[in-house]
Amino acid sequence: MDTMSSRATTPDTELDPSIAARLKRGPDGLVPAIAQQYDTGEVLMLGWMDDEALHRTLTTGRCTYWSRSRQEYWVKGDTSGHFQYVKSVALDCDADTVLVKVDQVGAACHTGARTCFDADVLATDPAAAPSAPSSSGTTAPGASAPATPGTSTPATPAQ
């Protein structure tokens, strides 16, 4: 368990209004925050931040999260020694998720594992997943496009 305090903001600890205006929070006032190792791209963990936690993260250079179960702030590493030193912070395209690139010292997961995503791998081979059209509307290599009822495939001109 890491350092915690009650959830409250004061004027000198408020998130920059230009950031706060863009942020899309859930009904509980929180946004998911993904911690990623800055130099390898390894996804380490998912935590939750409110405006105060994000402000602390941006201003201290250390990740601060809101614990939904304990209803308290915690600074990653204050008691565990497994620090997250902030390298960059970004919002996703919808401004509803924060990506914090960090230099992780020690384990990121509360279980003692380097990452929270090591233990329960659901798939490892992309070929094992069903083929689906890509965002460009084309089908993945080696996969056949689904037929659309009532349409015919135009003939391909000979070259």
Q: SSE layout and pairings?
A:
Blueprint: H1 17-22, E1 31-37, E2 43-49, H2 51-60, E3 64-67, E4 72-75, E5 84-91, E6 98-104
Parallel strand pairs: 1-6
Antiparallel strand pairs: 1-2, 3-4, 5-6
Short account of what is shown:
The chain has 159 residues and is α+β, with helices and mostly antiparallel strands. Helices cover 10% and strands 23% of the residues. It has a domain at 17-104: Roll (Ubiquitin-like (UB roll)), CATH 3.10.20.810.
Task: Please provide a written account of the structure.
Residues 45-117 form the Phosphoribosyl-AMP cyclohydrolase domain. Keywords: Amino-acid biosynthesis, Cytoplasm, Histidine biosynthesis, Hydrolase, Magnesium, Metal-binding, Zinc. It is an enzyme of class 3 (hydrolase). The chain is an alpha+beta fold. It has a domain at 17-104: Phosphoribosyl-AMP cyclohydrolase (Ubiquitin-like (UB roll)), CATH 3.10.20. It is built from two helices and six strands. It has helices at residues 17-22, 51-60, and strands at residues 31-37, 43-49, 64-67, 72-75, 84-91, 98-104. The chain has a four-stranded mixed sheet, covered by helices on one side. It has a two-stranded antiparallel sheet with strand order 3-4. β3 and β4 form a beta hairpin. The radius of gyration is 21 Å and the shape is globular. The model is unreliable at 1-7 and 139-159 (pLDDT under 50).
